[in-house]
Automatic annotation (TrEMBL):
Protein name per UniProt: Single-stranded-DNA-specific exonuclease RecJ
Keywords per UniProt: Coiled coil, Exonuclease, Hydrolase, Nuclease
DDH domain location: 74-231
Similarity comment: Belongs to the RecJ family.
Organismal lineage: Bacteria, Pseudomonadati, Pseudomonadota, Betaproteobacteria, Nitrosomonadales
Coiled-coil region list: 313-340
A biological-process GO annotation: DNA repair
Species the sequence originates in: Nitrosomonas ureae
Length: 590
């Protein structure tokens, strides 16, 4: 079941924003996202939270400065997603500028799994022989891995943003805004943001030691393109601090000053760098970068981001593009298989899905690198927390989960682990996404235990999908200027892109590109409680991935979009959801 609601907003915030010069539509949009005054919309770097508010950061910067001065061998242990890859690239690029002897190692997800495991520590010791390990986007749960590193004589600095477990690793230093006692207010900062902050602190420490007295001090703002990509691709909440980081990175990319790897990814995605938005970061560049970690080795993605050779970066980007194509094919096959399982194995029909509070699926033939995407697709379709499992090694299966509002996925897994401690080998993650490992023979037991926990934590109301919009637009508010303005703002998790809803008469429709509907829409305005009338305004519309014709009258959720075609720029409505209008309330549409 789906319900459309209009976002509420604080009237005082709306008035304050309007008094500061914002038109009513923008004042309403921003007030509905918690903005109380215009200063919260400013994105200058001066407004970033100071790095000193991160627990342990000044001490850690001093330890790194000492290690660089002593010419110790540093090794970054990265994660195999976009956040981990960009975080690794930030660390490599900046530490090299600071004169460090630095290399990296990223675990192959199929051989070593996630994080600083004892196995990856042994591999690092045998192949790289580092003095100091630096984790990025992982490590906060690596108690055994850090213990192994300590025994082998390697020091460990952890930079992470994931939620800690009951015990912290015995690392030399930990930088994580979510660790106990950390006052840093932005708990949603991505892993790439954490390592960037540590690099800011390290530059300040090196400056104090006179390291830049004879040379030019590196401008770390030049690396914000990578911070923006990792932050958006990791789908962290875009609080005010993250919006600053992303906005500054986008501006750098739009000016043609991105690193060679990001420019190459834009090129293979056939996207104009001057028009890039958070959409391109999240849905074009992020998936191509992630494809390396899902199907191959994220070293390929990291190499793309750390090289300054444009030709080499483009060569790698083409490989990533091909991997992403393969990923889409695998995902499509798995999704078809998963829907069959939902129907035949779990005996769930679309209209009967309300009988269950969660979905857990496993197939021996599924690809471990794509289960997270599949979980997200099934979650979106059925609006249930979903965990998808694929074969691991040594009789284990790996699960990747995605959740809905109302169920904190990591906390739910923690509750399962407390109720049934024999079921989960290891787990970790966030409110919306998490991963875990269980024995293959325990799948049914885990499925039932997770369903039990879901029924404890969720209510029936949580299981109704609610589509929030910013209401309807007045005719004078619908224009190309508003569409262009909205297109260049930072939107994402926790700060959703504006959408609107209205009732339309479908004047014409035709299939374009073999699988999309090109529409001519006329808004229908309420004349009284049981009558509708057609407005004088018609609008171009597009509905992607729909071949079947629409009914004459629809209720639709749409976004304003700047459409550029054959050198012409025009306004069109991008339909995100549509429903057949309830014609019983219409006595006359004239």
């Amino acid at each position: 079941m789906t319900r459309i609601t209009t976002r509420s907003y604080n009237l005082q915030s709306f008035q304050t924003l309007h008094d500061c010069g914002l038109p009513p539509v923008l004042a309403r949009i921003f007030a509905a996202r918690g903005i109380e005054n215009s200063s919260q919309l400013e994105t200058e770097l001066i407004r970033l939270i100071p790095f000193a508010q991160l627990k342990n950061i000044t001490v850690t910067a001093a330890l790194l400065a000492d290690a660089i001065a002593a010419k110790k061998r540093l090794l970054i242990i990265a994660d195999y997603d976009s956040d981990g890859a960009t975080a690794c690239a930030i660390g490599i690029r900046i530490l090299r500028k600071f004169g460090a002897t630095i290399d990296y190692l990223v675990p192959n997800r199929f051989e070593f799994g996630y994080g600083l495991t004892p196995e990856i520590v042994h591999l690092a010791h045998e192949t790289k022989q580092p003095d100091l390990l630096i984790t990025v986007d992982n490590g906060i749960a690596s108690v055994e891995g850090v213990s192994t590193a300590n025994r082998l004589g390697m020091q460990v600095i952890i930079t992470d943003h994931h939620l800690p477990g009951d015990a912290l690793p015995a690392a030399m230093a930990i930088i994580n805004p979510n660790q106990p006692g950390c006052p840093f207010p932005s708990k949603s900062i991505a892993g790439v943001g954490v390592i960037f902050y540590l690099m800011l602190a390290l530059r300040a420490e090196l400056r104090q030691r006179g390291a830049f007295a004879t040379g030019q001090e590196p401008n770390l703002a030049g690396f914000l393109d990578l911070v923006a990509l990792g932050t958006v691709a990791d789908v962290v909440k875009l609080d005010s601090n993250n919006r600053i980081l992303v906005q500054q990175g986008l501006e750098r990319i739009r000016k043609g000053r991105a690193c060679a790897g990001i420019n190459a990814l834009l090129q293979v995605s056939r996207r104009d760098y001057a028009q890039i938005s958070t959409y391109e970061l999240g849905f074009m560049l992020g998936p191509r970068l992630n494809a390396a970690g899902r199907l191959d080795d994220m070293s390929l993605g990291i190499e793309c981001l750390i090289t300054d050779d444009e030709a080499y970066a483009l060569e790698i980007a083409k490989q990533l593009d091909e991997l992403n194509r393969q990923r889409r094919e695998i995902e499509s096959t798995m999704q078809e298989s998963a829907l069959i399982k939902l129907d035949d194995i779990l005996k769930i029909r679309d209209e009967e899905i309300q009988t269950t509070y969660s979905i857990c699926l496993f197939d021996q033939d599924w690809h471990q690198g794509v289960i997270g995407i599949l979980a997200s697709r099934i979650k979106d379709k059925y609006h249930r927390p979903v965990i998808i499992f694929a074969p691991g090694s040594h009789g284990e299966i790996k699960g990747s989960g995605r959740s809905i509002n109302g169920l904190h996925l990591r906390d739910a897994l923690d509750l399962v682990a407390k109720q049934r401690p024999e079921l989960i080998s290891k787990f970790g993650g966030h409110a919306a996404a998490a991963g875990l490992t269980i024995n293959a023979g325990d799948f049914e037991k885990f499925r039932d235990a997770f369903e039990h926990v879901a029924q404890i934590l969720l209510t029936p109301a949580n299981l109704t999908q609610v589509i929030e919009t910013d209401g309807d637009l007045e005719p004078a508010e619908i224009n190309l200027e508003l569409a262009a303005y909205l297109d260049h703002q930072v939107w994402g998790q926790g700060f959703p892109q504006p959408s609107f809803n209205a009732r339309f008469y479908v004047e014409s429709q035709r299939i374009v590109g073999e699988k999309h509907l090109k529409l001519k829409l006329r808004k229908l305005d309420c004349a009284d409680s049981d009558q509708l009338r057609k407005s004088d305004n018609t609008f171009d519309g597009i509905l992607f991935f729909q071949n079947d014709p629409l009914p004459d009258i629809i209720d639709a959720v749409y976004r304003l979009q700047v459409n550029e075609y054959n050198g012409k720029t025009s306004l069109q409505f991008l339909l995100e959801h549509w429903f057949q209008a309830d014609l019983s309330i219409i006595s006359n549409a004239s």
